[in-house]
Design a protein that fits this description.
Strand content: under 5%
Helix content: 55-70%
Shape: flat
Radius of gyration: 28 Å
Largest sheet: none
Oligomer: single chain
Distance between the termini: 70 Å
Order of helices and strands: HHHHHHH
Length: 183
């Protein structure tokens, strides 16, 4: 008797979850790619490899794909954890735009997945309040430091160089052109 119940649960889950080969948003990101990008943005921002404005730009592009995923598969079980994780990334970034997106995502998780632990954590985050973070000092220092520019190539000299000699190269053999010759 247990097998039909498990089968019915698997069918229901398959009907509500996004297929792995389904792509969302302008950037055509799969659900796995969306999750990967969120983690990647967070890691690169936290390790100072990406300025806040660059992280925000990538987050907004990724959120467009997330919104498309949520619109097409509103009952996907991964949306709650992904939305909560994404809200946390926005909450770490400076500025009112990032704060607004964090609040929006926490609210989305809380209202669409009310019986999950992510909803409880989202309610807690909203209750504590999501502050507007200032621009981090490391980002201001990085913007102020001169970036290395490419080394210019040397200017052509005015001296006359000898003209190249014309040499005749032999035509490639049929075997070198990709033609197989059988004896």
């Amino acid at each position: 008797m247990r097998t039909p119940v498990l089968f019915a649960a698997a069918v229901l889950l398959a009907a509500t979850s996004a297929p792995v080969d389904q792509y969302f948003g302008k950037l055509k990101m799969s659900a796995l790619r969306i999750r990967y990008e969120i983690v990647s943005i967070r890691d690169r921002y936290e390790t100072h490899k990406m300025l806040p404005e660059d992280a925000l730009h990538l987050a907004l592009l990724t959120e467009e794909a997330f919104d498309d995923w949520a619109r097409k598969y509103p009952k996907d079980s991964w949306l709650a954890s992904t939305g909560y994780m994404f809200a946390g990334v926005y909450a770490e970034m400076p500025g009112t735009t990032a704060r607004g997106h964090a609040v929006t995502l926490y609210t989305f998780v809380k209202s669409h997945f009310p019986n999950t632990r992510y909803a409880a954590q989202s309610r807690d985050a909203l209750h504590r309040g999501v502050p507007v973070r200032p621009d981090p000092a490391w980002a201001a220092q990085r913007r102020a430091s001169p970036r290395p520019s490419p080394t210019p190539s040397p200017a052509p000299s005015a001296s006359v160089s000898p003209a190249p000699s014309a040499t005749v190269s032999p035509a490639p053999s049929p075997a070198r052109r990709g033609v197989l010759i059988r004896p």
